[in-house]
Write a structure and sequence with these properties.
The complex is a heterodimer of chains A (135) and B (475). Chain A is α+β, with helices and mostly antiparallel strands. Chain A is built from 2 helices and 8 strands, in the order ββαβαβββββ. Chain B is 33% helix and 26% strand. In chain B, the strands form 4 sheets. In chain B, strands 7, 8, 9, 11, 15, 16, 18 and 19 form an 8-stranded mixed β-sheet that branches. A 7-stranded mixed β-sheet of chain B has the order 1-2-3-4-5-13-12, sandwiched between helices. In chain B, strands 6-10 form a two-stranded antiparallel ribbon. In chain B, β1 and β2 form a beta hairpin. The chains are: A alpha+beta (135), B alpha+beta (475).
């Protein structure tokens, strides 16, 4: 498992590795939080459920990350962990834990996950995803 | 990757049409910039855009071009809407109608140099800035719907500025096709609290002084003189525009399948302009553009209030007239030689020469003021459109253009040293975060003077004036 920031002139790219697609979804969300805010986050925990529909796993990942971005900037909720994730046909159901801190020290504004160079690939025994964000 | 880039003439290069490209690529660039260009993916993105249905003449890139997502930043593409031309949200960007306005004053630098710190503090208090900043206005959904239909007019009707301001704003600060009907509840939610806010990233407000006049006659007509204080505001449509783009990129992913469009990059997702999806996106994009104009109009009002209050002078003595407001992330319906195009400008500025009916009356004789902000702490330019820019669908550059990633800037530049360096140049800095300053450090950008040298050398713009900052406010 890992998150690596990749070179992109205008924006921010993340390369995320995991043993499973589920881990990719979790690590990528943590990657967004890592680049978007500074310092330790503490606060009350909240559980939220989501359901997305998309033709590919890549589409679902973009939908999920944009939800994480929306929660972070608009609701002040910081993604912490995935509790449950179920892929079913073209759907994914996610239950995730978020923190509600008093204040968030944002470092940059991540506007959106994009489809540019977006991919999830099998690598060795696991998976690797690349996502470019508009910032 | 190695691209076949051929020189056409000084400052103009071409990427020949190959494979499924519908037109060739045209790059406005200097010899000096070419080596750097080959290090990133900009040429590939110019080639990708050349695949879009309905694209006419060229897939263009201005000299501040750099690697974006989908379209390159600095990209211009005009699609003939009567030849099944497409509209692509990725060709306009997330920050719909990100743009710049320039305000002239009657003040000289010498008259205010002792008060700049006070002025910058007042601006920093009066104009909310920073990541996710919310403003002093909290609109109901009904009011927000009025904003996105009326644009700058909404602000003026409520006392944020004067009717004359509308005559100095691109399209009068209102695109008439805007509709509130195809916008998601989430976009409304994000837009309600952010009107009248600067935002973060590369957005800024600068107090500048005019240090060079290149065209005396034009400068005089536009009310500019040496050592004069002018104010530049760079901001966009905030979370509202981001959400509109986000929503429609999803819609377009489906539309691409529905209309059988084959694309080399999914971020270029699009639909024929005349399709239901294309029309709905266009009407929503116009709504976001109107939000952005209204946003900059309101901030300009607070700039006027801040200056007159701190200096204890009347609005008349302050001046504070809007020279112009330009959009540099936008799609516009424009007619040239009897054909109707949707012109995508992503990090590019419309630059109209004298005589074009699209111009506001006050600039029909002179041509359009083109505002080119430099990177933080460096110079900015005021240009004017030329007839030669017909080759680029009357488009020119939009700024310095990034050269170094934010990550690289953070690795190479030390924040407190940067602040000292800028202050050493006599610039007063107001910023929410040191990291924000570092990411926008001058060394992270191309040299704006080189960018301007290219557009002037290629004949698509002419220089009118150069300004340097004396106060910078960043989110």
């Amino acid at each position: 498992m890992g998150i690596e920031e990749i070179k992109h002139t205008a924006d921010i790219g993340l390369r995320v590795t995991g043993n499973s697609i589920e881990e990719i979804f979790s690590e990528a969300a943590k990657g967004v939080v890592n680049v978007a805010i500074e310092g330790k986050v503490e606060g009350e925990e909240e559980i939220h459920s989501f359901e997305f529909n998309g033709d590919t796993k890549e589409d679902l990942l973009v939908e999920w990350l944009n939800e994480v971005i929306y929660f972070l900037y608009e609701k002040g909720l910081v993604f912490k962990n995935l509790k449950k994730i179920i892929f079913e046909d073209k759907n994914v159901m996610i239950e995730a834990e978020f923190l509600k801190p008093e204040n968030i020290n944002y470092s940059i504004e991540v506007k959106s996950a994009t489809y540019h160079n977006l991919k999830i690939e099998e690598k060795g025994n696991g998976f690797e995803a690349t996502v470019i964000f508009d910032t | 990757m190695d691209w076949k880039i051929e020189k056409v003439e000084e400052f103009i290069y071409r990427i020949p049409k190959e494979g499924k490209m519908r037109v060739e690529g045209r790059l406005y660039i200097s010899e000096k910039m070419i080596s750097h260009l080959k290090k990133d993916n900009t040429p590939l993105q110019v080639v990708n855009v050349a695949h879009l249905p309905g694209i006419e003449k060229y897939s263009l890139a201005m000299p501040d071009m750099h690697w974006g997502y989908g379209f390159p930043i600095g990209g211009v593409a005009a699609m003939d809407i009567n030849k099944n031309g497409v509209i692509s949200p990725g060709g306009i960007g997330y920050d719909i109608n990100c743009g710049v306005r320039l305000i002239r004053t009657n003040l000289t630098f010498d008259e205010i140099k002792e008060r700049i710190e006070d002025i910058m503090s007042a601006l920093f208090v009066n104009i909310p800035s920073g990541v996710g900043s919310t403003g002093k206005l909290r609109l109901s959904e009904k009011e927000l719907k009025e904003v996105i239909v009326k644009g700058s007019e909404w602000a003026v009707e409520r006392g944020f500025g004067y009717k004359e301001d509308l005559l100095s704003t691109e399209d009068g600060g209102r695109l008439k096709w805007a509709s509130p009907d195809y916008i998601s509840p989430r976009a409304y939610e994000r837009g309600r609290g952010q009107l009248g806010t600067l935002g973060s990233g590369n957005h800024f407000l600068e107090v500048q002084k005019v240090v060079n006049i290149y065209d005396e006659e034009l400068a005089k007509k536009w009310g500019l003189f040496l050592n004069q204080i002018v104010i530049m505001i760079h901001s966009g449509s905030r979370g509202f525009g981001h959400q509109v783009c986000d929503d429609y990129i999803k819609v377009m992913q489906k539309a691409v399948q529905k209309y059988g469009i084959s694309l080399p990059d999914r971020q270029l997702a699009c639909a024929p302009f005349n399709s239901e999806e294309g029309k709905r996106y266009f009407q929503s994009m116009c709504a976001a553009a109107n939000y952005a104009w209204c946003n900059r109009q309101i901030m300009m009002h607070w700039v006027r209030e801040s200056f007159t209050k701190v200096l204890g002078i009347s609005p008349r003595d302050f001046g504070g007239e809007l020279i112009y407001d330009v959009a540099h992330n936008i799609g516009k319906i424009e007619e040239y030689d009897g054909r109707k195009y949707i012109v995508h400008r992503k990090g590019a500025t419309r630059a109209l020469p004298p005589g074009i009916p699209l111009l506001p009356e006050k600039y029909r004789e002179t041509g359009q003021p083109v505002i080119i902000p430099g990177s933080m702490g460096t110079e900015s330019y005021l240009l004017v459109g030329t007839e030669k820019a017909k080759d680029t669908f009357y488009s020119t550059c939009h700024g310095a253009g990034r050269e170094m990633s934010r990550h690289e800037a953070l690795r190479r530049v030390e924040g407190h040293e940067l602040r000292r360096r800028l202050e050493g140049k006599g610039i007063v800095i107001e910023s929410k975060s040191i990291r924000g300053l570092v990411e926008e450090a001058p060394e992270a950008y191309k040299d704006v003077s080189e960018v301007v040298r290219v557009v002037v050398g290629a004949g698509i713009s002419k220089k009118v004036a150069r300004m340097v900052p004396v106060g910078v406010m960043k989110g």
